[in-house]
Amino acid sequence: MEYGQERIATLHDLAGHVPDAPTDRAAVVVPMTEREYAGLAAERVLSALETLAPGEVVVPLRAPAGKVGDFREWLSGFDLPLSVVWCNGPGVSDLLDGHGLNGDAGKGRDVWLALGVAAARREYVVVHDADAETYESADVARLLSPLAGDYEFTKGYYARVENGRLYGRLCRLFYAPLVRALADAHPDAAVLDYLAAFRYALAGEFGLTADLARSLRVERNWGLEVGTLGEAFGHAGFEKTAQVDLGRYEHDHRAVSGPTGLSDMSRHVGRALLRAVESHGVAPDYDSLPGRYREAADAFVEQYAADAAFNGLDYDRGDERAQVDTYAEAIRPPGEDRRLPAWRDADLSPDEVLAASREDVAAVRDGR
Questions:
Q1: What are phi and psi of 282, to 5 degrees?
Q2: Topology (CATH) of 9-366
């Protein structure tokens, strides 16, 4: 157990206490795809939320039409004030296309749609994934509680240790050493101090005030989490940001290769990270950055090897270094900015999105 602080407030679980939180004034956003349908982890998450009684649960759903009816019926079996946003429904897609916002679809776009709906109806918003096998409803209270006080943005952190091994590979072996390499070259960049302060920067669990939710530009795909940190730095900064200890999490694991593997995710995360630092005045030297990243990552590998040995965990240096080689290929200029606009600047309303989604779902139900 430790109680050290970072440049941002770090709120620890020192006594198993669940703080008071304005759950009745909050919306919980739980993004889902067809892989979550009736899964044990998603069942646990939704059942735990039943005991919490939040003001609303918003599920941004990305699934084919043939799955939507079954999905909606399954979700309706939970005693929750629940709104489903079918993110790739034809009416929603047409609505976004009419406003020039359709483009690439992914987790980020799904969450952006749900953030608009949630922030229009509640004072606070908590976002978390549906694949945590160790989820507890207290996680929502811990993310919410600081928002009712002095903070505008909260981020969860936790240990990723399962089956005698260290996980959290993309954060450990890509994000953290890349931030360190950038910070070594730009020691006066406050945004890099901010990004380095998060103990699990790629966690999918975060909370924010409705006002902040309406102010964020959002990455469309797997860069959602780090892109949100870059936006939170600009709006909430060090003083209005807290990270919250959520203990130990067990999540689904992804392969390194493949279309939804960690190598693919690293490209999205890398673009989002480098876009975030560029937007706050950092000009990376892209010729030397991959090499400096490899040096920083190699130091991390040795540190994690020592930590694993200290705890009697399995650790394969060769496999970890092979991942570093893969992730290094993702380090390149971020390219065109295709982020979705802040909801306060968008020329469509969350009500329009929700109405289009409801019509889409009704059409599937009625066979239209």
A1: -90, 135
A2: Spore Coat Polysaccharide Biosynthesis Protein SpsA; Chain A (3.90.550)
